[in-house]
Amino acid sequence: MWELIALSNKHPRVNILTPGPGVGGHCIAVDPWFIVSAAPEETPIIRAARAVNEQKPDFVLQKIKAAAARLRGPVIACLGLSYKADIDDLRESPALHIVEALAKEQIGELLVVEPNLAQLPVGLADTPQVRLAELRDALAQADIVVLLVDHRQFKRIDRELLKPKIVIDTRGVWR
């Protein structure tokens, strides 16, 4: 899929966006439902697109849970919490939803790396198995590395550090 998108985007008038763990933010994640509500018969494609995007966090969560089930006491580095790269905004963030679900289900120790935040949001800050970590420490300690947001810092990670890890790259950065 990643190769196909990259090849297609070589055309000067094509710009296929790369998929990720879902759609977040204050407008794209919410506003289409206003349109669907106002004109339900005329918006089946919008409804279908939003339904697919709303399932993505759970799809990613299942991949992480399957990887964690192979280990005893997994340490999972979750890279990114914001709804898109290089910002600190958590509104409707699919990455945040995924980390909250992992914490709630107590899947393992969660090392959250979010370079744009100084502290974890309230719901995660009080969860004992979740802690905010520096990138270097998280990569050193993790059994599983999950790229949830393609922040510029994560794009520069030395791939050699990832070789012994189970890697789930939801953004196609390390393909």
Observed structural traits:
Rossmann fold, alpha/beta, 175 residues, five-stranded parallel β-sheet, 5 strands, 38% helix, globular
Mean pLDDT level: 93
Distance between the termini: 10 Å
Q: CATH superfamily name of one domain? A: NAD(P)-binding Rossmann-like Domain
Strand content: 5-15%
* Tally of individual helices: 7
What CATH calls the topology of one domain is: Rossmann fold
For the report, how would you describe the main beta sheet? 5 strands, parallel
Strand order of the largest sheet: 3-2-1-4-5
User: How many strands appear in the DSSP assignment?
Assistant: 5
Tell me the radius of gyration.
17 Å
In short:
The chain is of the alpha/beta class and 175 residues long. The chain contains seven helices and five strands, in the order αααβαβαβαβαβ.
Task: Walk me through this protein's architecture.
A 5-stranded parallel beta sheet has the order 3-2-1-4-5, sandwiched between helices. It has a domain of 114 residues: Rossmann fold, CATH 3.40.50.720. The mean pLDDT is 93. With 175 residues, the protein is of the alpha/beta class. Helix 2 crosses helix 3 and helix 3 packs across helix 4. Helix content is 38%, strand content 12%. The chain is built from 7 helices and 5 strands, in the order H-H-H-E-H-E-H-E-H-E-H-E.
Element layout with pairings:
Elements (H helix, E strand, L loop, with lengths): L1 H7 L22 H8 L5 H26 L5 E5 L14 H11 L4 E5 L8 H4 L4 E3 L2 H7 L2 E4 L4 H4 L10 E4 L6
Parallel strand pairs: 1-2, 1-4, 2-3, 4-5
Helix pairs in contact: 2-3, 3-4
